Recover the amino acids of this structure.
């Protein structure tokens, strides 16, 4: 993505926005796992999803950012909020929040974090900035080409696309049948 | 700190992943466990899109789109199970969902 | 710094594309002010129009013909006591109107009032608009839950279920309009709002009339779904006074309620703008390709001035018809001043038109063009606003199960059918 070729696409204040969005994502991620009230957790998760959508925009993936906002923040989170309201047990926000073996869980997660950090520090050379440039102005066009195929042939993800629609149908049926009172 | 490389995005994704893992392993409220799973999936998505930019092709972004679709289906199914269970036992704590325990 | 400010003035792209943050900020502030003014006008027009539909007069006392009524309402709402129900979640109660307001106002950064009169032109413009307007549902759900009372909770759940259902039909109608943008020589469509209007200009036909009746049915689906999206009559079961004591905003009083009302009207304008951009040709004047001569250009560019001149004339006639009693002296003077202001605005616009006729690239000519684009866009949106008020005055509201049945069993199959037929006809024609 050469700013000289596309002057309108030159990023502005990239480090500032990256640190802002990354900080928001991690802070609200922390809020998701520590809040006592489930609705507060859900609101924090919405902030996380929107910051991650912003990070996608910075990674020159506008279509994935749009899909994230529409599906995740506008669809899945509404579903979560509905369910939280339906199963809102008043007692549950006054009970113990963390289970009895939480030190073990925390230790396991810290071990995982140490593994990640060692992988990143030792393998720093494996993750250079950019190998090949990505054109942005036709990102949607390229996604469509890969999903639907072009020039009459099937694209690499056409079959997966059809299977995904079947998956969604199965999920809808499953959710409807599981929540019926009498099958 | 002027140049934001792929590694920066990978570190953010790893942090979100670890936060999600902590949430799954330590919380008692089932809905919050499901939300932590969504955090994990988002971290994986961020990883994929960062690598897609690094390699310069769109396979990472396509995979990320499919993961978003998959997460929607999984959230629907998981919340359906939660509601069905809540009707039976009136509780949403993972510790107390132990009907199969001997 | 002045160089940075002045360097934008000669360009033909939006400030966002030119990377000029100063002008983008100016445009955002102008949009804020504009939306606030339009919401005030909408409030007055709604009360007067509803009243006249019901053969009564509406507000008449606060200003001449009730013109100051919106200001009085705004003042009252700001000075009212801020009541928060007991046991309500303080933080979430405070945040809920802000979510709705953010979702409604963020949409305005991609609305094209003209080919370069938008804050920015994203490549995924329509995707962005659909996504951000679906975030408004969250504000309603959270507002209903935070009030800690059963009427708001039921109202919020009903309202959000309705909005989510009609979003599906809306999205499919939008997709069939986007499909029509790809019926050109290169076979490439676009998601950018400005490019959609340019596609209509290049194909020489509003998408409303394309592949008749497919474009028209898609537009009708969107027009119905957008009324349901904004919780307006006849789909306002969730906030109807006789059913649910004002639904999800029952417990909100004063300034917080006015934030909800502002978010609702801003959402109405935003979805009407989407409809205008996708089907009605956006900022284009009627018949831009058919009647292309400079004489026709001149006639159509007189319209903004003549509209305000007509409004000034109506206000003058109102002044003349006021009873000549001493009680009405202040109202008469007020209405005369208002009429004079409108007349002055009309005169200003006509002077710009005449001055812009002489040279092609002078400031007056470019101002003339810009005013023309914004005027035609706002005229089409104003037609939709009036339709919203007309629906509210005329039709009874749907019961909630009827509403959901229409959303899923009628609108979704029809929009799917229109999408498939548009694709088939498009492939056959090209």
């Amino acid at each position: 993505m050469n700013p000289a070729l596309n002057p309108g696409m030159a990023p502005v204040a990239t480090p500032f926005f990256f640190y802002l969005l990354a900080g928001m994502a991690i802070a609200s991620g922390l809020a998701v796992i520590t809040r006592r009230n489930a609705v507060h957790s859900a609101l924090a998760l919405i902030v996380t999803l929107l910051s991650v959508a912003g990070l996608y925009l910075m990674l020159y993936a506008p279509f994935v950012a749009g899909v994230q906002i529409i599906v995740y923040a506008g669809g899945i989170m509404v579903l979560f909020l509905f369910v939280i309201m339906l199963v809102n047990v008043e007692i549950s926000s006054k009970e113990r929040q963390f289970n009895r073996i939480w030190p073990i869980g925390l230790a396991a997660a810290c071990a995982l974090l140490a593994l990640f950090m060692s992988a990143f520090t030792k393998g720093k050379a494996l993750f250079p900035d950019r190998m090949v440039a990505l054109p942005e102005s036709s990102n949607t066009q390229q996604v469509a080409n890969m999903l639907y195929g072009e020039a009459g042939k099937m694209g690499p993800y056409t079959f997966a696309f059809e299977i995904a629609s079947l998956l969604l149908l199965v999920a809808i049926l499953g959710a409807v049948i599981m929540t019926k009172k009498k099958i | 700190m002027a140049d934001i490389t792929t590694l920066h995005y990978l570190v953010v994704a790893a942090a979100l992943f670890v936060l999600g893992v902590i949430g799954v392993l330590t919380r008692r409220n089932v809905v919050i466990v499901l939300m932590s799973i969504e955090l994990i999936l988002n971290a994986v998505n961020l990883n994929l899109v960062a690598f897609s930019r690094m390699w310069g092709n769109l396979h990472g972004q396509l995979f990320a789109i499919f993961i978003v679709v998959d997460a929607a289906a999984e959230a629907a199914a998981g919340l359906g199970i939660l509601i069905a269970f809540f009707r039976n036992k009136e509780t949403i704590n993972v510790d107390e969902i132990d009907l199969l325990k001997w | 710094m002045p160089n940075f400010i002045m360097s934008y003035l000669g360009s033909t792209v939006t400030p966002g594309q030119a990377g000029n943050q100063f002008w983008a900020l100016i445009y955002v502030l102008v949009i804020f002010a504009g939306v606030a003014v339009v919401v005030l006008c909408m409030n007055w027009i709604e009360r007067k129009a509803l009243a006249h539909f019901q053969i009564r007069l509406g507000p008449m006392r606060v200003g001449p013909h009730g013109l100051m009524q919106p200001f009085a309402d705004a003042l009252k709402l700001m000075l009212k006591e801020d009541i928060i129900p007991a046991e309500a979640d303080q933080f979430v109660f405070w945040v809920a109107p802000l979510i709705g307001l953010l979702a409604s106002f963020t949409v305005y950064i991609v609305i094209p009032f003209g080919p370069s009169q938008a804050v920015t032109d994203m490549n995924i413009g329509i995707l962005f608009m659909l996504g951000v307007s679906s975030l408004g549902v969250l504000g309603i759900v959270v507002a209903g839950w935070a009030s800690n009372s059963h009427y708001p909770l039921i109202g919020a759940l009903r309202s959000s279920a309705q909005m989510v259902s009609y979003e599906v039909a809306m999205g499919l109608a939008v997709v069939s309009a986007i499909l029509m943008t790809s019926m050109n020589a290169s076979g490439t469509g676009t998601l950018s709002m400005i490019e959609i209007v340019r596609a209509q200009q290049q194909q020489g036909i509003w998408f409303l009339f394309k592949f008749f009746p497919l474009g028209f049915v898609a537009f009708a689906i969107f027009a119905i779904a957008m009324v349901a999206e904004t919780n307006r009559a006849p789909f306002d079961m969730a906030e109807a006074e006789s059913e649910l004591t004002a639904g999800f905003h029952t417990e909100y009083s004063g300034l917080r309620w006015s934030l909800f009302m502002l978010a609702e009207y801003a959402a109405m304008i935003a979805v009407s703008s989407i409809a205008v951009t996708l089907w009605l040709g956006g900022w284009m004047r009627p018949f831009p390709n058919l009647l292309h001569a400079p004489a026709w250009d001149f006639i159509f560019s007189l319209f903004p001035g003549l509209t305000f001149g007509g409004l000034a004339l109506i206000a003058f006639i109102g002044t003349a018809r006021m009873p000549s009693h001493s009680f009405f002296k202040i109202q008469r003077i007020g209405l005369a001043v208002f009429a004079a202001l409108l007349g002055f605005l009309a005169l200003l616009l006509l002077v710009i038109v005449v001055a812009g006729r002489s040279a092609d690239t002078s400031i007056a000519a470019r101002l003339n063009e810009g005013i023309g684009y914004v005027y035609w866009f706002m005229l089409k949106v104003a037609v939709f606003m009036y339709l919203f008020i007309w629906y509210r005055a005329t039709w009874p509201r749907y019961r909630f199960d009827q509403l959901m049945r229409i959303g899923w069993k009628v609108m979704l199959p029809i929009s799917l059918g229109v999408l498939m037929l548009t694709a088939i006809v498009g492939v056959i024609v090209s």
In short: The two ends of chain C are 51 Å apart (CA to CA). Chains C and B do not touch (no CB pair under 8 Å). The mean pLDDT of chain C is 88.
